[in-house]
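Entry 12.
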Amino acid sequence: MLGYKVVCVPRSIVYHLGGGTQLPEKFYLKHRNNLIMMLKNYSPPNLFRFFFGRMVLDIISFVYFLITGDSHRSFCVLKAYAWLVKNFKKVYVSRCFVQKRRKISDRGIVKMVVKKSVAIQHYLMKRKSFKDIYGLPRPLTHYVAKRRDKENSVN
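Predicted 3D structure (tokens):
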């Protein structure tokens, strides 16, 4: 949003252990942080468009988790919204700060993001690998470089 360029170093390797850890608060924090991100970063038309759609999906998730007996996740959804209500002023101040400095419109950002819901692809369509995700703004080869292992080559 600030107009910075994002660069990629295809030969870099990242070992990410955070996704493997199932902390009790992880679901709540992911949920809360996503709501904050939406409120802070979207322009008003898209904020109303996406945030209310998100609320509908959260209500469905809440009911689904209750029905399936996962009361912890249901509680996490409620807890995220409760945090938002309690800290609304804090989020609003952050929103004002971000919106005053933005240089790229929502339209410009949307051109750079996945066009199909990754959540739907992962949970409903059982796509567990990045290479199986579709709707990326660029071809998969743009994101995943083929590595040549010099160690495996014969001298």
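Annotation: The first helix runs from residue 26 to 41. Confidence is low (pLDDT under 50) at residues 147-155.
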